[in-house]
Amino acid sequence: xxxxxxxxxxxxxxEQRVNGEPLVYFDNAATSQTPVSVxxxxxxxxxxxxxxxxxxxxxxxxxxxxHYERVRQQVANFIHAASADEIVFTRSTTESLNLVARGLGxxxxxxxxxxxxxxxxxxxxxxxxxxxxxRTGAVLKYIELNDHQELDLQSAQxxxxxxxxxxxxxxxxxxxxxxxxxxxLGKLAHAAHAWFVVDAAQFVGHHPLDVQEWDxxxxxxxxxxxxxxxxxxxxxxxxxxxxxxRPVQFGxxxxxxxxxxxxxxxxxxLGFEAGTPDISGVVGLGAAITxxxxxxxxxxxxQERVLVNYLLPQIKAIDHVTMYxxxxxxxxxxxxxxxxxxxxxxxxxxxxxxxxxxxxxxxxQPLMSTLGVxxxxxxxxxxxxxxxxxxxxxNALTAVKEFFINGIS
Length: 409
Fold this sequence. Notes:
Strand content: 15-25%
Number of domains: 2
CATH class of the largest domain: Alpha Beta
């Protein structure tokens, strides 16, 4: 199991104090912290390998290219893709999903065709599909929640029809603290002969990811949700889609030939990576994968499960606090409100106690509307968090509730 003292030493940022209190970083669903080994890998790249990839024959360029492509294979192995050619590097989950919406949606959708997503989607997996529907005349449909505020499989079966061409869902909610039944949704999508797209941003840093087990056609995620740097994302593109998915950015490196009249493009993955990529970000992503694999999924999942089981009943026990999502089980994401108190006030008061949480609609406004709120506060855990930090959070949240509800400072 995890040696927390040793692990936390890998994240020096966690040792600081905020407003005179020990920092409790409970905003991991927004961005996880980055271990020293990832920072060292990126620094070493700039010190020893810094050159553009795929374009030079000199030694530094060859080193950089070899490292870049080695990480592509590493990512393929990490998510159990069939080939490194199925891995496209992007800037983020958002860019990956926009590439799919434009590069696939614009190609295949016609008036009356259906796009099915869930009501819990992050705006990154919602707004691009709204825009595609406007451009193509397709119909955007939503899978609703059940009484436990989880994805309703019965609703999914009703929404996915023979007219459905794309099904796009999150593997895990960034608000509700639930992991969705991805395999079942993939079966429903493929039974309708639809392409199946998965937003794995909230899943990839917490559980092993197997795109072939999911039977997913396209999967998007980001480095900064899995202890890597910001500005680097991944789009898995199943080989069967390589000739159907079209590039949406054009320029250097992704071309085969250019004449005055026309251009031909490279095959995947380079055909989707126009311009100079975030090479150091790719290096950092590779180092983050190595770090996760060194810790081990069994240890990561065990530690997060221990924290969730410790924290969940304590949040539920605080009167005047409403927690969203399933009440009997949870991932390490807890969206909540203190009755009568704006979430931003809750987050500001918690910050004064050293506790960093998120407040707002979490880029999920249709979900907020479904829940009957405009915003929530959100605490989200990582394997480097501790029970002592959970105690500090609960004590601070209780004090916030007492101050606002009962006027006790």
